[in-house]
Design a protein that fits this description.
Layout (H helix, E strand, L loop, with lengths): L1 E4 L3 E4 H10 L1 H13 L3 H13 L7 H13 L3 H13 L7 H13 L3 H13 L7 H13 L3 H13 L7 H13 L3 H13 L3 H14 L2 H11 L5 H28 L1
Antiparallel strand pairs: 1-2
Length: 260
């Protein structure tokens, strides 16, 4: 769906998303106009840029409001993002039970991210009664749609034989698919099974890919795991991960200082 910008050019939401990289302020203005005119995808996108402070002043409460507006007319990702706000307390008081309701509705409508996020709450018993079997079912549904993070988690259940028969070969296949789809945790999981089977060069390749995409918490935890690896080349990656984590933490603190 397109809309007029300065009465001359017609843009659609995909073009606006691309414009955010080059002209975020101009794109944000156009997104706001479209959202106010009732373009549902633009309403969801406005929520996202308000949440991130991208091209517009960050306002988590207003982001949640726009996510809810879009969700009311059936935008599934907006409903999922409303759940994220409620889960983490972005622009509202944290309410995991309310988040679970939003995720459940998105999951039941077939959204892979809704299935993944609802499964996370079910697996940990946050906001809902813990139900690992249902969590695994939802992870599978999302994984079968190509959701990379869910692929890795299905692999974990299968490798450990948790709430399902143990199937190591199937676990490795899910890890591979997750890694190739770009999930850094999947890349690390796949590297681990490759290292255990003696395929060290291939394992190191995936470890470097996971390093490039991993967040701070992942890097810290993974560094500790790598420190106990049998192969010295894999074990040496612990220091690489630790140093990268230190650099990332410094960069994060610098951003915080810039906002003060």
């Amino acid at each position: 769906m397109g809309f007029l910008l300065r009465r001359q050019e017609v843009l659609n939401v995909e073009q606006l998303q691309s414009m955010l990289d080059d002209s975020p302020v101009r794109a944000a203005q156009a997104i706001l106009i479209a959202a106010r005119e009732g373009v549902v995808d633009a309403q969801a996108l406005l929520g996202q840029i308000l949440l991130e402070g991208r091209g517009i002043a960050r306002d988590e409460a207003l982001a949640l409001r726009w996510f809810r507006i879009a969700a009311q007319v059936g935008h599934l990702m907006a409903r999922n993002m409303a759940g994220r706000c409620l889960e983490h307390g972005w622009g509202c008081a944290a309410d995991e039970a309310a988040a679970a309701r939003e995720y459940r509705l998105a999951a039941e409508a077939g959204l892979d991210w809704g299935q993944y996020n609802y499964a996370n709450l079910l697996a940990t018993g946050r906001g809902v009664v813990q139900d690992q079997a249902q969590a695994l079912m939802l992870y599978r549904q999302a994984a079968e749609q190509g959701h990379a993070k869910s692929m890795n988690l299905v692999g974990r259940y299968l490798e450990d034989g948790q709430y399902c028969p143990r199937d190591f070969d199937a676990a490795v296949e899910w890890y591979r698919r997750s890694a190739e789809a770009g999930d850094f945790r999947g890349q690390f999981s796949y590297a681990a099974v490759l290292a255990d089977s003696g395929q060290i060069e291939a394992a190191l390749e995936w470890l470097y890919k996971a390093l490039a995409g991993g967040n701070l918490k992942f890097l810290r935890v993974s560094s500790n795991a790598l420190a106990s690896a049998d192969d010295p080349r894999v074990r040496a990656m612990a220091q690489v991960y630790q140093e990268h984590a230190d650099q990332l933490e410094t960069a994060l603190w610098n951003k915080v200082d810039e906002r003060r």
